[in-house]
Specification:
Length: 246
């Protein structure tokens, strides 16, 4: 692509493998996805590129997989805010918060020395048990980091597994700075998913969380967004439409 500053070689094993869509349309799709911070819907992508909705939807998911693959090896360090959030429409008359039938997600946000947000990780989880939290931390948070959370009992297991754990009762009135940035991010990701991708089900939720994290973690390098995303797509293995709907 003439817009890339570094040479992009399309080889077997990339998201472009066995594609029937012209590479020019692929690059336009990557450009549109990269430069709209709100995300673009498959309907919009299909209209802009003159392709079928199914093709646009598949391209989006291939790109999201590349985003997730790129961030999968990165870990958080320093001070890390950690909390669980719940996504999806609640059952009518059902519980809210912990105990709900909505999909639980762990959200971790590292802060810099000034207390400002740096990097973000989000993972769909089966439950909010201590073993689940420890598994997440060992995969995504460096040992020795300081984890800040609320006082939910499951988080207490983190201190027994190599992490410094600071727990406070979540009370915005008395402790307005406690988990402030994390809850701001959670509100933003819910708006991101609800505003652009209506009717999102549990099956593909992780892919959309990966997209949000990828964008968030590169918010300071917007001028390089297309080049970086194109390189991700070249470096990532593909996923097929049958695999996506399986």
């Amino acid at each position: 692509c003439t817009n890339c500053h570094h040479q992009t070689t399309v080889t077997s094993g990339t998201v472009f493998e066995k594609t029937r869509t012209k590479l020019l349309k692929w690059f336009w799709a990557i450009f549109l996805i990269a430069h709209d911070k709100r995300g673009v819907s498959a309907t919009y992508l299909a209209s802009e590129l003159g392709i079928a909705y199914q093709t646009a939807w598949t391209i989006q998911h291939k790109v999201r997989k590349a985003m997730g693959d790129r961030d999968s090896s990165y870990t958080l360090a320093g001070i890390v805010e950690l909390d669980d959030a719940f996504f999806g429409a609640p059952t009518e008359g059902g519980k809210r918060g912990r105990g709900t039938e909505q999909t639980p997600v762990l959200v971790a946000l590292s802060l810099d020395k000034k207390g400002c947000p740096k990097y973000l990780k989000m993972q769909v989880i089966p439950d909010v048990k201590g073993t689940t939290l420890v598994d997440f931390a060992q995969k995504y948070i460096e040992t020795g980091a300081t984890i800040s959370s609320d006082m939910y009992r499951s988080y207490q297991t983190l201190a027994k597994n190599g992490y410094q754990h600071e727990a406070k009762l979540f009370n915005p009135a008395e402790n307005p700075d406690h988990l402030k940035w994390l809850h701001t991010v959670i509100s933003n990701v819910k708006a991101f998913i609800g505003g652009t991708y209506h009717g999102l089900d549990r099956k593909h939720l992780q892919a959309y969380l990966d997209e949000f994290c990828y964008r968030f973690n590169r918010r300071e390098v917007k001028s390089e967004s297309f080049n970086r995303l194109a390189q991700c797509c070249v470096s990532s293995s593909t996923i097929t439409y049958p695999e996506l709907i399986r």
